[in-house]
Design brief:
By secondary structure, this protein is an alpha/beta fold. It folds into two domains: 7-219 and 393-416, Rossmann fold, CATH 3.40.50.2000; 238-391, Glycogen Phosphorylase B (Rossmann fold, 3-Layer(aba) Sandwich). The protein has helices at residues 22-34, 51-60, 77-88, 94-98, 102-114, 152-160, 166-189, 198-207, 248-268, 283-286, 303-308, 324-331, 360-372, 374-391, 394-416, and strands at 7-12, 39-46, 65-70, 119-123, 143-147, 192-195, 213-215, 238-242, 273-277, 293-297, 311-314, 336-338, 355-356. The strands form two sheets. Strands 3-2-1-4-5-6-7 form a seven-stranded parallel beta sheet, with helices on both faces. Strands 10-9-8-11-12-13 form a six-stranded parallel beta sheet, sandwiched between helices. Strand 8, helix 9 and strand 9 (273-277) form a beta-alpha-beta unit. Helix 1 packs across helix 15, helix 12 (324-331) crosses helix 14 and helix 13 (360-372) crosses helix 14 (374-391). The longest helix has 24 residues, at 166-189. It is globular, with a radius of gyration of 22 Å.
């Protein structure tokens, strides 16, 4: 039985298109697929003044309308540090303070009362405190669904006891319990919560038992991200990492790899080179550019870099959710070496789809093994490509998300049949 098209309003702290890092890729992949059968409008809170110019055309290819609101708190340098310091003495988390923008609420009031929406999809829970259940007079309010991407308060808790810098650990220690309180309240107040993995669902079942969760896994654009005859051939000694280079999990993982693992790889393969691709490299990463390590920065197209890579490494020790860098590497049929946490949440078999190692000696040995054994690299890449094509496409995950939307709307409508509709004046 065909279901009716839904009107969906996306509320996001970033423009998802064009996608340049994992969180953008998830939202872009889901929305471009949803838009084939449903109507999408977006309200974007953005930090960078150039965002409307760089993102509007890409988003209007699948959105009916896009509204951009500049975040006056989206600052860097000493202003960001000052806001973090203020948050230490507040009952609110840093994330809540950053996202409190009256102009955003004003625009949401205008958009939500001008036309009826079935669903408000909130990208990350720290935007869920806005008044979202509004609709034109005499119509039912939208349901609120949160896409959590990861369990951020749990990541903050991990950082508080990690090998991160003292400042980052102190900030996380002072912030994560406030963040947990706000996120749990948001999850339990929403009509639904999307998580990326069973591990995250289990975390929320413990901390937010009233939340109604569904697993909407990360995926890859398996049509675009696939080996092509025009791609460069793999280079026998090239090791690749890619991701947002300002995120704490990526910085921690790269420092771990460059300091503790890479020297062992070089000892076995002196000609090896490590290529790091991603935006906003942290200063501590730039300081470690040395023998065989090159930081490229952001690129418009990852595929040539993935094609050249003999192996992709995911040396993460912090985080939750699932790693799009593994899925996109698989889509391009590249072999992967990951830590156990890096591969968490993905339904895969170690030794068949990727190699798993947590100890520096074991991780370096796994990398060197793939560099030394081209047949193993080919086998792992082919198995990864087959797995992502079968189980991790955006088309399939978007269908699951649309079905979850329909269920939430149906539950709301069933409830409203038993009580009068309350209009928003």
């Amino acid at each position: 039985m065909a279901t009716k098209p839904l009107r969906v309003l996306l509320l996001s702290p970033m423009a998802p298109s064009p996608p340049r890092f994992g969180a953008q890729a998830r939202t872009h992949g889901l929305l471009t697929q949803l838009a084939q059968h449903h109507e999408i409008t977006a309200v974007i809170l953005h930090d960078d003044a150039s965002t409307p110019q760089s993102s509007e055309a890409a988003m209007l290819s699948y959105c009916k309308q896009v509204h951009f609101i500049r975040n006056p708190h989206g600052v860097a340098g000493w202003r960001r540090r000052l806001l973090q310091l203020r948050s230490w003495f507040s009952r609110k988390s840093y994330q809540r303070m950053v996202s409190m923008v009256p102009e955003l609420q004003n625009r949401l009031d205008e958009v939500l009362t001008a036309q009826r929406f079935d669903v408000v999809l909130v990208n990350f829970p720290h935007l869920a405190h806005y008044r979202l259940r509004q609709s034109p007079r005499g119509t039912p309010p939208p349901v609120v669904i949160i896409d959590s991407h990861d369990v951020h308060y749990d990541l903050a808790r991990q950082i508080s006891t990690s090998a991160a810098s003292f400042g980052r650990r102190l900030h996380a220690r002072l912030n994560w319990k406030k963040l947990r309180s706000e996120e749990v309240a948001a999850y339990e107040n929403a009509e639904g919560v999307c998580v990326c993995s069973l591990a995250d669902q289990q975390r929320l079942s413990k901390d937010a038992p009233a939340a109604r969760t569904v697993i909407i896994p990360n995926a890859a654009d398996v049509d675009r991200m696939q080996p092509r005859s025009s791609d460069p051939a793999p280079e026998a000694d090239t090791v690749l990492f890619f991701g947002l280079l300002a995120s704490v999990p990526n910085v921690d993982g790269l420092l771990f790899f460059i300091r503790d693992i890479w020297p062992r790889v070089l000892a076995a393969r002196p000609a090896a080179r490590f290529i790091v691709v991603g935006a906003n490299p942290a200063p501590e990463l730039r300081a470690l550019e040395a023998s065989g390590v090159t930081i490229v920065g952001p690129v418009d197209d990852l595929r040539p870099y993935l094609s050249r890579a003999a192996v992709v490494v995911v040396p993460l020790r912090l985080g939750s959710g699932t790693r799009l860098k593994i899925l996109e590497s698989w889509a391009m049929a590249r072999p992967v070496v990951s830590t156990t946490l890096g591969a968490e949440g993905l339904v895969s078999i170690a030794g068949k789809h990727l190699l798993i190692a947590d100890d520096p000696a074991e991780f370096s040995a796994a990398v060197v093994r793939i560099l030394n054994e081209p047949q193993l690299a080919t086998s792992l890449g082919a198995a990864g490509r087959a797995l992502v094509s079968e189980a991790y496409s955006w088309e399939g995950t978007a269908k699951s998300l649309a079905a979850f939307f329909q269920q939430a709307v149906g539950h709301r409508d069933d409830s409203k049949m038993r009580e009068p509709v309350r209009a928003i004046e």
